[in-house]
Amino acid sequence: MGFIGSGSIGRTLARLAVGAGHQVVLSNSRGPETLADTAAELGPRASAATSEEAAAAGDIIMVTVPVSAFPHVPAAPLAGKTVIDTCNYGPERDGHIPELDSKSLTSSELLLRYVPDALLVKAFNNIYFKHLLSLARPAGAADRSYLPIAGDSAPAKAAVTEFIDSIGYSVVDAGTLTGSWRQATGTPVWGTPYGPYSNEQGQPVGEDAIRAALATATR
């Protein structure tokens, strides 16, 4: 697993991935030396590198950066790779992006403009990072939670589903990247099903609840 961006979601996913036996290569915009402590804390399965090195090293790459940083995501090493987009658009942080404000594009479609040869899958953007950590459950657990994913490549979706299963979650296929607005910021499936931020443990959410939340989204 290569990580382009190592904020709250990135670090949480890296921790879950290491716990599931995956190797992780972390990167951020400030250089690998700033991630030395995080890598050391995660143990021998974790290392820090540049964004280009992390993109080249991973079988699956996690892009977890502000939308305004999309132009800086290294495109060449992502060609042909499964790439998970965890990002949410926030004009107050990212500045106004006309195509996203007008809803003529989803944020994942915008990312794809910068990494056109990647096999992009939207995932993990709808859950609070503390809930992501606390709600992970082994396969077969009665209280296992579901996460929506969206993408245009069936093989990439299968690879992401396998990864998500390995770290303690089941998957609802939410359709294509064009339809990934159904899990964007402020939609019914975004954050709310897993409980309020004030409850750091969160609450497990089954398949039916996720499907219902996706179905009731409006644009």
Structural class: alpha/beta
Distance between the termini: 33 Å
- Please report the number of helical segments: 9
Question: How much is the radius of gyration in Å?
Answer: 16 Å
Largest sheet: 8 strands, mixed
Unreliable spans: none
Cα shape: globular
Strand content: 5-15%
The overall strand count is 8
Give the H and E element order: EHEHEHEEHHHEHEHEH
Helix content: 25-40%
The main sheet orders its strands as: 3-2-1-4-5-6-7-8
Q: Give the overall pLDDT as a whole number.
A: 97
Question: How would you describe this structure in keywords?
Answer:
219 residues; globular
Structure description:
- The structure is a single chain.
- The protein is of the alpha/beta class.
- About 30% of the residues lie in helices and about 15% in strands.
- The chain contains nine helices and eight strands.
- An eight-stranded mixed sheet has the order 3-2-1-4-5-6-7-8, with helices on both faces.
- Strand 1, helix 1 and strand 2 (about 25) form a beta-alpha-beta unit.
- The protein is globular.
- About 45% of the residues are buried.
What's this, in brief?
This protein has about 220 residues and is an alpha/beta fold. The protein has helices at about 10-20, 35-40, 50-55, 90-95, 100, 105-115, 130-135, 155-165, 205-215, and strands at about 1-5, 25, 45-50, 60-65, 80-85, 120, 145-150, 170-175.
